[in-house]
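call fold(seq) -> C-alpha cells
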Amino acid sequence: MAEQVVNFTTVFLGIFIEAAPFLLLGTVASGLVEVFVRREDLAHILPRSPLLAALVGGLMGFAFPVCECGVVPLTRRLIRKGLPVGAAVAFLLAAPIVNPVVLASTYAAYGWGRVLFARFGLGLLVAASTGVIFAFNPSPARMLRPQVFVPIAGAVEEVATPVAGPSLSVRLKRAMRIAGDEFFEMGRYLVIGSLLAALMQTAVPQSILLSVGSGPFMSVLVMQALAFVLSVCSTVDAFISLAFAGTFTTGSLLSFLLFGPMVDIKSTLMFLGVFRRRIVVYLVVLPFLMVMLIGVFINLNVNW
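ret:
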C-alpha cells in the first residue's frame, strides 16, 4: 500500500511539474493577448469562410509555443477577444501539435521524414475539420460556459482600460496580473486532471493495454487510450512513442502523436473551464473518431 501511494505521488508530481510551466506560459500569452491585441486585429486576419477561418485558426498554433495545458486559457482569451468558436476550436486542437517546440522535438525523435510530415499535416486536418463542424452551430455562445464572458477575477479594471492609453511598462504589469489570476483559476483543473491521470497510470497496469495492442485496429485504440491516460506533454511525447516503435504499427504511433496532444485527461478537465459539458464530449469524441479512422486507414493501406 505504501509503495502504491509513493508511486501515485511520484506520477502526480511528475505530470503536474511537467505541465505547470506550460500552463504558466499559456496564461502569460493570454494576458499579453488581453492587453495588446484588439478585436479589430483578429477581424483583419480571419477570412469570412468557416472552412478558411478554421484553417487559419489551426495555423495560428505556429505563433504560440504552447502545449495542451497552456492553449486552453489562451483559447478562452481569444474567444473573448472575438475569435469565432470554430476557429478557436481548431486553434485549441492544433496548437499543441503544430507549434515550433513540438516540431523541433518530433524532428529530434523521428528525423525529417514521413512521421514528422504526417503528424503536422494530419493534426492540422483533424483540428480544422473539427473546427468547421463547430463553426456551423447556429448558437455558438451557447456552447461556452458563462464565465468565459466574465472578466477574470481581479482583472476588471485592466480589461476596461483602453489599450492604447498606458505606457508599455504599465501594460506589461497589467498583463502579468491577468496571467497570475488566470493561472490560479485554470490551475485547479490541471491539479484535478493530474490527479486522475496519476490514478489511471498507477491503478491500471500498462501491460494490460499493451497486451491487446496487436492488429491494425486494436493497436490504434490501445495507443489512443494510452495517450489519454498518460497525459504526457506534447513537447516530449514523440520521445515516449519511440519506446513502442518496435512493436506497434505506424498508424497506431501516429494515433498516439495526434490524439494525445489534442485530448488527454488533464486537458479534458481544463476544457470544462471554457465549454459546456456536452460540448466537451464532442471535443473528445470527434478527434478520437477522426484519428482512429486515420490510424486504421494507414495500417491497412500504407506500407511504411
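Confidence is low (pLDDT under 50) at residues 152-164.
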